[in-house]
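pinging the channel bc i need a second pair of eyes. not urgent but kinda urgent?? the chain im working w is below, pasted from the shared doc
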Amino acid sequence: MSTGAQKDLFANEGTASNLSNQLTANAGNVYGGLEPTLAAESAHPAGFTPAQKAMQNTAAQQSAGGSTAAAVGQGGLYAARTRNAGAGSSAIGNAVRSAGAGLSKNAVGTETNSANLARQTQQQGIKGLEGLNSTELGEGENALGLSNEALKLEEASPQSYWRKEGQGLATQGINSLINSATMGIGGGGG
């Protein structure tokens, strides 16, 4: 492989390594802002606020009260028309019981919906944390993979004729120096 191609491979490795560092820093910045919010959502999920619950319960109570008032009014009119004071009491009693049951059902429904909202918020927080971690790690690992690939290509590339010859001559020269130095040390003491 030519020297220019090898330089390009080393440059690619450097670029990929720098990209990995930048992506890791970016992920850290994003992570630092999102992680506390997502962790709070998953650890302490919130349903309806007390004010929202109060509004829902007030609306249910007003509805039940209006239904009961209408039934009592109609019962009174019926009693007046029939001139029988007890004629509407059964219908009024049924209307009051029905309104009370509806009110109870609405109050339980408000609490159930609040718990469902809290569970949904918790699941979103957990999914957000999982996604944040996989994105943070995945991009940096991809860039490091590019860096490793560039280094493997450079290492696996065949050396040019002149590079091999130069290394061979350098190795011979070093070996010659070592031999002469060891001979000089061993031969001068006798």
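so The chain has a mean pLDDT of 77. and Residues 89-156 form the longest helix (68 residues). — does that match what u expected or am i reading it wrong
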